[in-house]
Amino acid sequence: MSFPDITGEIRAAAPELRGTLAANAPSAPLTWFRAGGPVQALFTPADEADLAHLLAALPDEIPVTVVGLGSNLLVRDGGLPGVLVRLAKGFAQIAVEGLRVEAGAGAADVKVARAAAEAGVDGLAFLRGIPGAIGGALAMNAGAYGGEVKDVLVAARGLDRRGRAATFTNEEMGFSYRHCAVPDDVIFTHATFEGRPGEPAAILAAMNEITEKRSTTQPVSTRTGGSTFANPGGPGGSPKAWELIDAAGCRGLSRGAAQVSELHCNFLVNHGGASAADIEALGEEVRRRVRETSGVELRWEIRRVGVG
Questions:
Q1: Whether 194 is catalytic
Q2: Alpha carbon of 52 to those of 49, 119, 193: distances in Å?
Q3: What pLDDT, in 10s, does the model give residues 17-39?
Q4: Entry's InterPro entries (predicted)?
Q5: SS3 of 175, please?
Q6: N or C: which end of the chain has fewer CB within 10 A?
Q7: Structural domains of the chain sorted by starting position, each given as residue range(s) with its CATH number in brackets
Q8: Would you state the pLDDT for residue 248?
Q9: 3 state SS of 264
């Protein structure tokens, strides 16, 4: 299927756009699942000012969605109406000064972790274990291996639906487990983190341990979206999502080419050719079985957007 082409309308409303704008762009190459329908309009802004120009000019009735590296995004097979903003090279800058790390929202978490480590800034190594980019990490208070974004964030900057810039302190982010309280229409563009003094060699060694753990316990080399469901017990608590999924007999469960990972059953994988509907339906079947066996309602961590 395809959507009506709205790129002409967008360019007329925002004639000074400098980024790329494409109609009915495929979404599958933008997500780690490599599945999903077309995007009505895909916009890759040149920088924050370019994005602000678009948002200020875009009619209110046109919805806006944002993607970074696409690690935890599933676009349904019917496609995504409106504009999908992709934060890419113009938002990938990383700089370290003292114990502070400045990062664009499109910067890969692993690259931020490495830049901090090489500069002797400890406390951000946990980002090595989080697939995706900084914008998504801010939006969901991402965490792994004993650390969370809330532990190291000083402030985040973003643009609202009208293109107005705002800065949010750590407290104003309203962090909780895998959640922040900033309005959903805010697109994060930049983050300031602060760590503590450390030895680069020791930090890099800790990151290597995380890499090794991930490669042996998670299906990192497959088409997957990272952790599918939030842990009901919170960070470090019990029960963990994978334990409930395993107890419900879902390890290895499949639908078409989509499967619950045999290696880590809180990961859904696309073995090639799975539709977004297959992946989402498999996740819902897992939720149903867990509900029936344990009474626990699993909450999706994967963002599912678009029409079926």
A1: no
A2: 5, 32, 23
A3: 999 999 999 999 999 999 999 99
A4: FAD-bd_PCMH, FAD-bd_PCMH-like_sf, FAD-bd_PCMH_sub1, FAD-bd_PCMH_sub2, MurB, MurB_C, MurB_C_sf, Oxid_FAD_bind_N
A5: coil
A6: N
A7: 7-86 (3.30.43.10), 91-205+209-213 (3.30.465.10), 219-305 (3.90.78.10)
A8: 98
A9: coil
